[in-house]
Amino acid sequence: MAAPVLTSQADDFPKWYQDVIAKAELAENGPVRGTMVIRPTGYAIWERVQRELDDRIKACDVDNAYFPLFIPQSFLTKEAEHVEGFSPELAVVTHGGGEQLAEPVVVRPTSETVINHFFSKWVQSYRDLPLLINQWANVVRWELRPRLFLRSSEFLWQEGHTCHADGADARAFALRILDEVYEATIRDVLAIPVLTGRKSERERFPGAIATWTLEAMMGDGKALQMGTSHELGQNFARAFDTTFSTADGGTDYVWQTSWGATTRLIGALIMAHGDDAGLRLPPAVAPVQCVIVLVRDEDGAGAAADALAGELRAAGVRVRIDTRVDVSFGRRSVEWELKGIPVRIEVGPRDLKEGNVTVVRRDAGTKDSVAVTAAAAAVSTSLTDAQAALLAQAGERMRARTTSVSTLDEAVEAAATGFAELPAKLTDDAGEDFLNGKSVTIRCLRRTDGERPRPEDPAEDLVATVARSY
RNA sequence: CGGGAAGUAGCGCAGCUUGGUUAGCGCGCAGCGUUCGGGACGCUGAGGCCGGGGGUUCAAAUCCCCCCUUCCCGACCA
Q: For residues A89 and A109, is the Cβ–Cβ distance under 8 A?
């Protein structure tokens, strides 16, 4: 089974992905290059991802809010590194209301600046802290080489922005989001294992003092960054004068974090679990967990299918029933397989005569004849097993294709097929240049003792994971 | 912007080297019929400024020149 690979137009990709999931629109008389249309099947997956992330974000006491799409250009320039990092990829609006604007506005590439504009008004006292805000929004980054889902010029995401009274608190919160929101969702819902660690200086977010990342391995051994959490220190607070009165009567700048996860996760899901027969959705994220395919509406099969659907719904399974008996059975089977529905139940008069239905698992391709009375139980077992099996497969792939090496040359060789781990002291400026020259990048840095690396940690204590990436 | 490749029906392609009836094929789409427990089949049909402009020629999808667009590799990146 080949691992699907997403390209900018999804053309040398199995055709069904653009029919079923999404399409990158690139026509000269059509939408802007690199933007994408997400079809209902793909969007339903995003809605599930949103819900799972949102629940966990709220569990960290973060509230949702909304800030403007347009940002005055001058806001971006207030933080030196930030403007330098984003300038080339900004979409700038120069006209509005039929007239040239006195000051151009940019379409937000991320919202640190506008949000800090408001934070500086909202925060007065240490009693206002921590201030924990999240926004669900779209952002625009004018990408030179867009790639369906992975790097589209417009994408959907959530961006969290927080203010804290001290650096340690901010740091702890950035890591809490990394673990309790991102890693938990990606592992437990998307069934994709990740490596978490710190980005190298070169890969750090513009304006941050530290960038934390989650790196996953796709079916072809390349790395994909699944999400990010930044410690911003006091950089934006200084630029926007976001200060507060401390408990002892002094004044200080707030310490901040920002963190985000995007529609890229849909792409990750496709590339981590998909195969030649289409998508394979982990049950936890599947908009439809079980489809009941009515083979033929004869001898009470229709009623049996309805009854089973009711039973499954009552058991909390997201179930859909396919009664399109005028469409051939094979066609319908393939359609649900392409969409990655984890479990399919075939209900028809032939099996029903024996009191049975057929339960098919998408992840393993297994087909079992099960008594109608035991079908609901078989479905819930299958959903649990499929969720675990997909995570185990992805985990096994990552283990099998990760190699520990001790030289840069060996790292490049290992990166041809997967991840390479090597002592971080080899990845100094010259080492990173060498790797980058071979299309290999430092994905993350971790401590050899498993603890979180701190900025002041010497390279001797760190291990670098390097790989080719999307 | 540097290096490669490609633009012909909604999608995927052939035809071009060696100009020559009305530009083909597969999928998809529409109609009718037979099918229907793994992408069914037959018949009929609709659908083309052959990327654009200029040139050569009796004649250009095909040869020449210019332009445009897109894709892949690199710089950027959730």
A: yes
* A94/A73 Cα distance (integer angstroms): 10
How far, in Å, CA of A451 to CA of A39, rounded?
A: 42
**For residue range A358-384, what is the model confidence (pLDDT) as tens digits?**
999 999 999 999 999 999 999 999 999
Cβ neighbours of A121 (radius 10 Å): 10
A176 three-state secondary structure: helix
Q: Which residues pair with A444 in a beta bridge?
A: A465
> Which ipTM score applies to this complex?
0.86
Q: List A374's β-bridge partners, or say none.
A: none
Round and report the angstrom distance from CA (A28) to C1' (B60): 27
Which amino acid is located at A265 in the chain? L
Give the global pTM: 0.94
Q: Which nucleotide is nearest to A356 (CA to C1')?
A: B37
The SS3 assignment for A274 reads coil
Helix, strand or coil for residue A105? strand
The helix-helix angle for A408-415 and A429-437 (nearest 10°) equals 30
pLDDT tens, position by position, A111-133: 999 999 999 999 999 999 999 99
Neighbouring C-beta atoms of residue A408, cutoff 10 Å: 20
Pairing of the two strands A319-322 and A290-294: parallel
Question: Residue A209's CB: how many other CB atoms inside 10 A?
Answer: 18
Structural contact between residues A383 and A401, judged by C-beta atoms closer than 8 angstroms: no
Of all nucleotides, the one whose C1′ comes closest to residue A347's CA is B37
Query: How long is the CA A346 to C1' B76 vector, in angstroms?
Result: 49
